[in-house]
Design brief:
Length: about 450
């Protein structure tokens, strides 16, 4: 095996929306192939004509393009019927398989299937993740491998393809362990060399239960793109479910993962899907983007009146994916920055703790006076801060001044600090809101 070129494959069936679990399978195959200067094959296993749909295949092709997991070769099983047919004929000829006429129960009709002649023996394979696994194949009986010569089923097609495509490593989910003994038997029948197997651990929810399609966490993978996650973050996140390089670092690019990935260190037990961690990783990858790109992306969600460079850091600090900008906007979190929307509020809330309303008025007057002295061109966050802090520091507590100013400007219980709001609103609007509060 050692001297052979490494060939891996990811073989999804286009029978439903593609989920992130599949991204991990694709990724591990990709990483392992790339770090060994080998080839990574993507194979659409679309032999089930009833359940396979073009839109699902288009979906994962688009997804992998977005994730930049480019396969070296792409195959579609529905285009390979002739190849499978040859193997089926040969297997029948050599007595490894036979055509079986069976009663179709409901209709009392007879139909034919092709069954594999089970040698009924113990078979052992060494799994890179799980170690030696032994099955008694007797339990499997003479299993069906095709409905007819031109309608092969999964176990046959997968074995023929892995053989024809010279796949050296089958890296796939643990749900396929039970399929492996059938596939080993077919390999032996057609004289195929056995690839190495690595079955990856399950992906679990935060409660350590297996993630099911009904979980709110389980959304089609492409929706993560539409929610404004970065492809780098999705890759980084999925790579770490079931494997990690050890040490403290957790933020990796695809090329770092190619370098660090270790097939021999995949864990046996289930990996946790933690969406808070995904958001955190996404933010870490966002921070690495050029400032110009961050700005353009955020602006693309903002109405013109909020497209102000000063707002970028305010917004960026509060989001972990691009679509959060939309949420902030909808929740009115940016309203305090709008010159056109004077805040409506409960004036009692201008008062800070036990300070008397008269004292609050005095403080607001001091603030107005101080800000009147800052010229319009110098009305920056920094200068507003310096002039307000001078007053605030002379009071018993800073909040006596900073709270009513912030509340007068924003009209909200929670908002960014008053200095940045003042700069974005500009001198006139700031003074007018303070006057109104007075
Ligand atoms: N087509 C199979 C599936 O989608 C995967 C086959 C394999 O990886 O061996 O579950």
């Amino acid at each position: 095996m050692q001297d052979k070129k490494v060939v891996t494959r990811f073989a999804p069936s286009p029978t439903g929306h593609f989920h992130l679990g599949g991204v991990r399978s694709a990724l591990y195959n990709y990483l392992f192939a790339k770090q060994n200067k080998g080839a990574y094959i993507l194979r659409s296993e679309d032999t089930d004509k009833e359940r396979s749909k073009k839109e699902y295949e288009d979906g994962f092709l688009e997804l992998f393009k977005w994730l930049e997991l480019k396969p070296d070769q792409f195959f579609r099983q529905s285009e390979r019927t002739e190849i499978y047919k040859k193997y089926l004929e040969k297997m029948i000829e050599n007595d490894f398989a036979y055509i079986s006429k069976e009663e179709v129960r409901e209709e009392g009709q007879r139909s034919e299937v092709i069954r594999f002649k089970n040698p009924n023996k113990k078979i052992t394979f060494n799994d890179i993740v799980l170690g030696d696994i032994t099955f008694d194949t007797t339990d499997l009986k003479d299993f069906v491998i095709a409905r007819s010569l031109t309608e092969p089923l999964y176990h046959l097609t997968v074995v023929v393809d892995d053989y024809e495509m010279k796949v050296t490593h089958v890296i796939r989910g643990q749900e396929h362990i039970a399929n492996t003994p059938r596939q080993l038997l077919i390999q032996e029948a057609i004289g195929a060399e056995r690839p190495l197997y690595a079955h990856m651990p399950l992906i679990l929810g935060k409660d350590r239960a297996k993630l099911s399609k009904r979980d709110p966490e389980v959304i089609p993978a492409l929706e993560y793109r539409d929610l404004g996650y970065l492809s780098e973050a999705i890759i980084n996140f999925m790579a770490l479910i079931g494997w990690n390089p050890g040490g403290e670092a957790e933020v990796f690019t695809l090329s770092e993962l190619i370098e660090k990935f270790d097939l021999n260190k995949i864990q046996k037990s289930g990996g946790i899907f933690n969406s808070e961690k995904l958001d955190w990783l996404n933010k870490e990858h966002m921070k690495k983007l050029p400032a110009e790109e961050i700005k353009n992306k955020i602006f693309s969600f903002l109405p013109l009146e909020f497209q102000n460079d000063k707002l970028i850091p305010v917004i960026f600090e509060r989001i972990s994916k691009w679509s959060d900008v939309k949420i902030m906007l909808k929740a009115g979190e940016l309203d305090c920055f709008s010159k056109f929307k004077q805040p409506e509020y409960d004036k009692a809330k201008l008062v800070y703790k036990n300070v008397t309303p008269d004292k609050i008025s005095d403080n607001l007057k001091l603030a107005i006076k101080a800000l009147e002295d800052v010229s319009e061109e110098n009305f920056t966050t920094e200068n507003v801060k310096i002039s307000l802090m001078q007053i605030a520091d002379s009071l018993q507590s800073r909040g006596e001044l900073l709270h009513p100013v912030r509340y007068a400007l924003s009209g909200k219980d929670k908002s960014p600090d008053p200095f940045i709001i003042a700069e974005i609103l500009g001198k006139n609007e700031t003074l007018s809101r303070l006057q109104k509060a007075l």
